[in-house]
Amino acid sequence: MKMTCYPLIKKYLDQFNVPYSENKTDMLLSFNGNQMYFAPLDDVEKIKSFEAKYVWIEEATETRREDFTQLTLRLERTTNEGVIILTFNPVDQYHWCITDLVQGNRPDTLIHHSTYKDNPFLSDGFKATLEDLINRDENFYRIYTLGEPGVLKNIVYDRYDVIPFEQWPQAVREKKPDCYGLDFGWTDPFAIVAVWSHEGKLYWREVFYRTNHTTAQVIEWMNANNIDRATPIECDSAEPGQIQELCNAGFNARPTKKETVTGGIDYIKSRGFVISSDSTDLLKEIRAYKFKEDKDGRVYDEPVDFMNHALDAARYGSLYFKAMEVQFVGGFGRLSVW
């Protein structure tokens, strides 16, 4: 929330000259007797003690039906004015948001269907990306361009654990990341994922995910958030100029070792991995990350190159460990590191 909705809402309040007071610790904004509170749903127990008149669930397809029920109980009980707003892309036709709400014919539910054509703030480049999905994957085109329910199949990663960072092994939590993976962006998100290796398994935690940020602005954020300068940062090798900019700022940035996307995916699957439950955008990407499929249903051994920025960063960081594996060469037991 600190990286997504919270700063975005503050940006628009400032833009529209709405005065407000702020409690940064609790992520609470107040104005004229009204309060706006931002909270994750990783632990539904956290929301059982409050009451609200309006609830907005962003990326509602990432919540459980049980969480939605709890939120309905948190609405103002003394009147019938309580409203819940759910916003989401219809990634799966069998998700409860689709079956229970969109197709549920509920008299208490209003459905608003919009597409990219209704968004006046999208750049021409992003519009072109959405329209080009028809040539990359029909299912993604249906979901993200037409706004119609899709069918989730041919998912790339189907086995991983989502665990709160506080419940990770102590040995992982108490040390700095072994490395970072970084995917450059501008219109697309600029993503950084911290990666650890522990007892043969990889651990991923999203630390940065924002659009419209230059490398200089990200460096400023890295300095402000004490990103260790000595820790290796595995970067997209297609951006040597931006990698050099990071190096000039004193960070240990370098292009990731050459490896096919599918080769990197196979390596990650062979290790197994854990994602921290607060890695909102990383989880959003991985749940929809699928192999290409054409209109005839033919599946290709290549993922759809869309909404995969945190995943690319995590893959770069994970390949750091493959590059560091010790190889025994020949009969002399000679060690080589590649």
Content of β-strand? 15-25%
Overall geometry: globular
Output the CATH class name of the largest domain: Alpha Beta
CATH fold-level assignment of the largest domain:
Nucleotidyltransferase, domain 5
Beta-strand segment tally: 16
Sketch the major β-sheet.
7 strands, mixed
| Order of strands, widest sheet | 6-12-9-8-7-10-11
Distance between the termini: 39 Å
- In the CATH hierarchy, the architecture of the largest domain is 2-Layer Sandwich
Would you identify the regions where 5 or more consecutive residues have pLDDT less than 50?
326-338
Number of domains: 2
**C-alpha Rg (nearest Å):** 22 Å
Number of helices: 11
Helicity level: 25-40%
Taken in chain order, the helices and strands follow as HEEEEHEHHHEHEEEHEHEHEHEEHEE
Structural class comes to alpha/beta
**What's the mean pLDDT score?**
88
Feature tags:
single chain; 338 residues; alpha/beta; Rossmann fold; Nucleotidyltransferase, domain 5; 2 domains; 7-stranded mixed β-sheet; 3-stranded antiparallel β-sheet; 11 helices; 16 strands; 22% strand; disordered C terminus
Description:
The chain has 338 residues and is of the alpha/beta class. The protein has two domains: 5-145, Rossmann fold (3-Layer(aba) Sandwich); 161-328, 2-Layer Sandwich (Nucleotidyltransferase, domain 5). It has helices spanning 5-15, 65-73, 96-102, 124-132, 138-145, 170-173, 215-224, 240-248, 261-271, 280-288, 309-324, and strands at 21-23, 28-31, 34-37, 54-58, 83-87, 161-163, 179-183, 190-198, 201-210, 233-235, 253-255, 273-276, 291-293, 299-303, 326-329, 334-337. The strands form five sheets. Strands 6-12-9-8-7-10-11 form a seven-stranded mixed sheet. Strand 13 (291-293) and strand 14 form a beta hairpin. Helix 9 (261-271) crosses helix 11 (309-324). The radius of gyration is 22 Å and the shape is globular.
